[in-house]
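Design a sequence for this backbone.
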């Protein structure tokens, strides 16, 4: 593509499962128009399946938490150096960093400085805190692709080239997911009132939230003996931690534990109690009322609270620009507080209907054919200099 003599050559680096999914969708959309395009960099199973040659295993990038990052830092830095050298020796028409901003932005800056066009897909949460990073982003990228409209507004205000492509999940999920069908798939009873509990996808989140979530479930069950609970857990380790907490609680609540399948579990439920994060976005797209809990280590929370520039923590509230979803934060996270919020959703069907209405409007706004939109931006960027 870059000119007529060679196929489109794209460098692309993703750092975790969510980025692997976005990268794969973008690669597929570009392949539709340029079947002989070449993709290389770092990707997981989805991107490789879509046709990306991965120079390193993606797992090496998927390190979470400060301690892990510090331990892996020498390896990460040398990997980034080698990738930069590789792309400078074999310049792609464009380099795309998918999320993983701490890794990708410095790599993008090095490549941009040498005249390679750079695109970053998924905005870091600069609008929320550490806004000074905008200057660093401006030096690193030719364009930012965002998933959410409020992020696009933020970059426009800072005069950075930006395009909101919406969220691929909003394209994938239907407006109305069949609750009865979801219950059937999971082997759950079809008629009871079902609450989904999602205590987070990382072990440290599950450690902090499993206890209060189980307590809240027992609190609600005392008041509503017809309640049942489903708990989708991200992996085997999270399941073990939750089971330990269950046996410690010595409770008799009827609870079904499943591994993965969180979308189905939320679709099957009437309401959800969940850790702040991607699950809140998914729950919103499924139009299920929810209570969001947010609990960090006390030091991290104190730092975050000082730096936060936004009134909300959860995506549904950020997207709505108002407090649609009840956020229970840090020391407020207790069995009683969470239980009361859940019961207020269960006892007020009218309020839940209003929430679903707002969620539907946001879903419509995020449904923008993200993969194709992202591909169009890539092509216009390489086409300008074609």
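Sequence:
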């Amino acid at each position: 593509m870059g000119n007529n003599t060679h196929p489109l050559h794209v460098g692309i680096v993703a750092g975790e499962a969510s980025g692997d999914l976005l990268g794969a969708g973008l690669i597929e959309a570009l392949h539709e128009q340029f079947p002989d395009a070449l993709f290389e960099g770092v990707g997981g199973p989805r991107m490789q399946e879509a046709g990306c040659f991965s120079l390193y295993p993606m797992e090496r990038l998927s390190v979470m938490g400060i301690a892990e990052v510090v331990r892996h830092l020498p390896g990460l830095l040398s990997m980034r150096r080698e990738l930069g050298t590789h792309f400078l020796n074999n310049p792609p028409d464009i380099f795309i960093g998918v999320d993983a901003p701490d890794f990708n932005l410095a790599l993008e800056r090095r490549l941009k400085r040498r005249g390679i066009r750079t695109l970053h897909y998924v905005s870091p949460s600069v609008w929320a805190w550490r806004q000074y990073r905008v200057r660093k982003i401006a030096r690193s990228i030719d364009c930012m692709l965002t998933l959410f409209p409020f992020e696009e507004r933020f970059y426009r205000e800072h005069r950075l080239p930006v395009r909101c492509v919406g969220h691929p999940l909003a394209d994938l999920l239907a407006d109305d997911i069949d609750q009865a069908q979801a219950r059937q798939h999971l082997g759950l009873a079809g008629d009871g009132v079902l609450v989904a509990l999602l205590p987070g996808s990382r072990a440290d989140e599950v450690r902090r939230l499993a206890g209060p979530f189980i307590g809240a479930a027992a609190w609600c069950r005392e008041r509503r003996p017809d309640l049942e609970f489903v708990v989708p857990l991200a992996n085997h380790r999270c399941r073990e931690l939750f089971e330990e907490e269950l046996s410690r609680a010595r409770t008799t609540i009827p609870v079904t534990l499943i591994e993965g399948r969180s979308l189905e579990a939320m679709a099957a439920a009437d309401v959800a109690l969940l850790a702040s994060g991607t699950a809140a976005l998914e729950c919103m797209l499924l139009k299920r009322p929810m209570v969001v809990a947010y609990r960090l280590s006390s030091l991290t929370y104190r730092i975050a609270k000082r730096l936060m520039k936004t009134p909300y923590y959860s995506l549904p509230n950020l997207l709505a620009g108002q407090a649609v979803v009840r956020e229970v934060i840090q020391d407020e996270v207790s069995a009683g507080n969470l239980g009361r919020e859940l019961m207020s959703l269960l006892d007020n069907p009218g309020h839940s209907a209003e929430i679903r209405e707002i969620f539907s409007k946001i879903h419509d706004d995020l449904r923008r054919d993200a993969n194709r939109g992202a591909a169009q931006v890539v092509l216009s960027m390489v086409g300008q200099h074609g």
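The first helix runs from residue 17 to 33.
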